[in-house]
């Protein structure tokens, strides 16, 4: 395994992701001080920084054990992979910088992009349903108004 120096990753600069949640960098100061020494742990927690605050629904999905298990299966990680949201950080437990470099970072990005697309789809469906409701309510009030207007007391 090739040794890595704990260098922050760069963030994407294109705007194709819109407001999707994404990881922008590794929080170097949160890495174990033993990295690069003989006492380096086999796996550890790597803190990542999110692009924005995480919504409750996003948090629920990210922290679901199934999410970590499917990511670990996709990129060959071990069963110790665990994802924890802490404010604007993603704590990737049971991993290494090497695993992130070798596919885990891409798998995390893919999961967040898919989550963003799913949330956008659900939001669009809710907005469409709300618009149908508004149109139905307008028709109903117009019908009631027409019925009331047709009543005379002469």
3D architecture notes:
- The structure is a single chain.
- With 154 residues, the protein is α+β, with helices and mostly antiparallel strands.
- Helices cover 47% and strands 15% of the residues.
- The chain has a 4-stranded antiparallel beta sheet.
- A hairpin with a 2-residue loop joins strand 3 and strand 4 (89-95).
- Helix 2 packs across helix 3.
- The longest helix has 53 residues, at 97-149.
- The protein is rod-shaped and about 100 Å long.
- It starts with 22 loop residues before the first strand and ends in a 5-residue tail after the last helix.
- The relative contact order is 0.14.
- Residues 1-17 have low confidence and may be disordered.
């Amino acid at each position: 395994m090739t040794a890595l120096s704990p260098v922050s990753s760069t963030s994407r600069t294109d705007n194709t992701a819109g407001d999707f949640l994404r990881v922008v960098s590794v929080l170097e100061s949160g890495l174990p001080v033993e990295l690069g020494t003989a006492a380096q742990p086999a796996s550890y927690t790597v803190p990542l920084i999110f692009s924005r605050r995480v919504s409750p629904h996003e948090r629920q999905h990210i922290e679901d054990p199934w999410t970590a298990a499917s990511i670990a299966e996709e990129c060959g990680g071990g069963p110790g992979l665990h994802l924890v949201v802490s404010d604007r950080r993603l704590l990737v437990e049971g991993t290494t910088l090497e695993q992130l470099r070798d596919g885990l970072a891409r798998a995390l990005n893919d999961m967040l992009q898919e989550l963003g697309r799913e949330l956008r789809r659900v939001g669009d469906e809710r907005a469409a349903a709300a618009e149908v409701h508004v149109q139905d309510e307008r028709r109903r009030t117009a019908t009631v108004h027409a019925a009331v207007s047709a009543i005379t007391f002469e």
